[in-house]
Write the structure tokens for this entry.
Amino acid sequence: MNELASRFTAVEAEIAAACRAAGRERGSVKLIAVSKLHPAESIRRAFALGQRDFGENYAQELRDKHVELADCAGLRWHAIGRVQTKNAKYVAKAAHTFHAVDRLEVAEELSRRREGPALRCLIEVNVGGEGSKAGVSPDALPSLVAAVRALPKLELVGLTTMPPLVDDAELNRPHFRELARLARSFDLAELSMGTTADYAVAIAEGATMVRVGTALFGERPK
Ligand SMILES: *Cc1c(COP(=O)(O)O)cnc(C)c1O
């Protein structure tokens, strides 16, 4: 087995184990392979292994890979990074799901630019407090949820968080738990949380999508 295949096998085994430990079905957690800064060829190889969901952070990189990999039928692009309003059109065109709504202006632009089926989206919440600056504060969430739900071409499906980078994944457990509580309070089914550093803990706390890059593709090229 080549290195990429063995990395995918190892992550799959850890996801399955985390699901078993939590009493969850394996099918309740989707693996998003975060391919940002890796070449399209790496995505092609992962696609050949059966991976279908890929995460990209940068709108222009997503735009280019979407074109380059247009022949990979069934590949789903997840835009997982915050986007500038002027680049929202690339996300609206290429993405299956957008994980990082952090202000109404971007949501409105995505809705304006989206053609075809509504874009599934998640609001990014800053549950980590001062350690992480990305996302809206829990206080601002109710009004943003209501405003996004009113947009015709967006389908609000869940919440995302990117907690601070820590050495001990357990330190992020309270943040994941809080995000799950918030999602329940708005009747949102999807929870995008957990990276290479902490996806097993995130699954224990209810993640439905884990965003794993380094454990699958290795260190990102600079
Ligand atoms: C890069 C990135 C990831 C993946 O991080 P790894 O540590 O490589 O698993 C997940 N989520 C977001 C928002 C990212 O930017």
